User: Fold these one by one.
Assistant:
Number 1:
Amino acid sequence: MIESVKSILDPKKPVYTTWGLALISTTIIAKFALGYWTEKRGDTLQSNALIASGKDSRMDSLFTLSTVVSALLFIFFKIHLSGWLGLIISFLIIKSGIEILNDSISKLLGERVSATLSKQIKETIAQIPGVKGVYDLVLSNYGPNTVIGSVHIEVNDTMSMNELDTLERTIANQVYERYNIFLTGIGLYTKNTENTFVQSIQTKIRQKIEQDPLIKNMHGFYIDPSKKKIQFDVVLDFKEKDANKKRNEISKQVKTLFPDYFINVTIDREISD
């Protein structure tokens, strides 16, 4: 950028040779082909370094092409545009570098799982007999073909420990076989199936709080009548910036329905679709 500005302010007559332009034109083809191949290999191997290198090489070939165009314009029409083209190229290089850097940082910090993948995994788990609901899917990418995650499932409160153990192993195996993802943790929410009193309380609370458009869903409901305690999880939309404020609002709403109970609300974020 600095050299281009100098060239614009103090233009000097460039010197081009036929052999020089022919050599540069050849490198354009070679750079573009090499960049295209490198980027494709990067996609295949899931290597960000190769993808970035391929993009850089292809961009470089386009910049070199602009140099040839600038030379031809000067040779045939005496139009000196190398400084201006260099300035444009410098901005494109900076833009490309920022995009590559942002992509790498996003993956390092952890980016949102694709909606298609998360929905497929949840549908796979939900179809397994014994699973009544799938929530809180979290996946962490640790490099090519190394993804681990955790999930919460809802099950009937009548299931035995042996049945739960078998169910968790089935879920982990199916997710790994279909998506090559290790589920290192499968949490449990129990669904009350026999106590109609608890079911009626849950229904009233759900109808009350899910009227709020910023509340995506409620799950993990648990009530201890002997201790007068109600607890559940609520998934908030990211549009809601103040989670603590929303938690207090929900607690007050439920408290108006059941003033004798202690209300414990856990806020979850919509980490995956």
Number 2:
Amino acid sequence: MKTVLIAGATGYLGQHLVATYLNRGWKVLALVRDRQRAHDMGLAADKFIVAPATDPETLRGKMAGVDLVISAVGITRQRDGLDYRDVDYQANVNLLREAVAAGVSRFCYIHLLNAEAMLHVPLVAAKQAFVETLRATSVQSTVICQSGYFSDMEDFLSMARSGRVWLFGDGDLKINPIHGADLADATAEAVDAGMETRAVGGPDVLCQKDLARLAFLALGRPASITCLPDWTRRPALRLLPWVTPRYIHGPAQFFLTAMGLDMVGIPYGSHHLADHFRSIEGTTGIGRTSS
């Protein structure tokens, strides 16, 4: 039986990776910061390792006998004083160094699609810096470049609940966000195939107006969408760090930057965003849309 260590196991994607590898017959070690949180989530794994990846000493000896490490470690909206360089870069470097020392044969990292076009965003720059470090080591690696999680698209639901979705430009830029279960399966397939890189998104390619319409449809409300001139997005990006704390402006900078790009990976999976929105809102999706 092969052994996988999944770092970031209590995150949105991490919990799906744990389930996927258990179903595939692997021994699963779940690296978590908070064992109680894992318990409260009902997360099942063969073994839980409680260790903050930001502290390399806590990782010593934890990867003995491990065949594969998958890291979905990264800052979302934590307020613990750590920055992207501490977590998205250094914590992953700590994991990588321990993996190399333990003789782990492959390291898989969950990255972002179109990272090279967003290097001015601190979150993305830290992730890309880690990918470059990973590629420079002797360990075999797989980098998954995902287009965006379903959970990220819930920001459109939040705007719709407030009564209006605000977009930049004409709202026609496209994305195919992916469900965590589908991305976990795509990751496992890429690792099995020995792929160095896999760019992946969900089965439905949607424009930004489509995302807004799906959000209003799930709420059973007529769509109210306003498209602002795209030039207003750029000063907002510069202003955010000055007027909001990092846990707000960090994700917002990424969101606003990604809104200016097509974020389409190779379509994969069977989960649809419309169903995800309806499951959150508990609606039948009956409503009318207009823009």
Number 3:
Amino acid sequence: MNIANEDNLPEQVERQVPQPVRTGTMLQRGSSSAAIARMEQSWELSLRERHAMRLIVPDDVSGGMSDAFRELRTRLLALAAGTNNFVTMVAPIGPGYGGSFVARNLAAAFAFDEAKTALLIDCDFRRPSQHKAFGIEPTKGGLFDCIEHPGANLGQFIYQTGIPRLRLVPTGRTQEMNGEYYSSINMQMVIHQMRKRYADRYLILDGPAIKGSPDARILSDLADFIVVVVGYGRDTAATINQAVATFDPSKLAGVVFNQLP
């Protein structure tokens, strides 16, 4: 696929104060379309803001980028063969290849469907970017805090993004973390619990770069599907094949060629 760009009831409800200060707190748990419809949306990005942030929109008459992400979403749904929800990891071959952009817009594509929700989890502790992309200040913490405090209410680390039905778990505290965090029992519990909050919620993991570290391969153990992001024209076929071979072939959903500016 070619994509042009760069880079039980009830719990408290996910909340976020209006712009310009964007912070998050609790999420209501549910397992049906009715529960999804009750998700609080205290603010929403305008079309102009979405375009400025290079985010796809549902009514893009020009097609192009929105259609490309819809196609990727459709492929993942077909591979899942009717599964209510699943976990997809997006991993770029190298830094600066637009992996976070692809993860962000893939999550937005899932959120287009009013009967589904998407949860974008920033798992790139070396280069976290999703909170910046959405203009969110993660004052309550994020994924790091979920892992370090397994008894905490995970809803406090889920933030609104300004896009209906799309939520974000940022990395939270930024620090160097090794692959053992990704393979820890706490991390496994976090992903499992996040997935269970809504039966129709699709988790998108914004993963670390494949080159130079085993982190992406370790994190892939928690995913049902993997999407590899390649910088168009930057890698040889041999390099791409080597990166793809890093993962379980039964999980590989495809390769996205990201046309960098």
Number 4:
Amino acid sequence: MWKIVVGFVVFAGLALFVLSKGGDVDMGGEKHGAEALHTEAPAATASAPAAAPAPAAAASEAK
């Protein structure tokens, strides 16, 4: 039992060390309101038409 406690303490210490060396780590949880950082995804351009797949009937006739 004591080995589990020692392992947990060592693992927790290692995790805190890695997080402290990682830079800007926000452990504050989910953000709402003005402090939330939202980035908009780039809009897809409508000028490039999507390629339509060939109908299955045409593919079977080609055999």
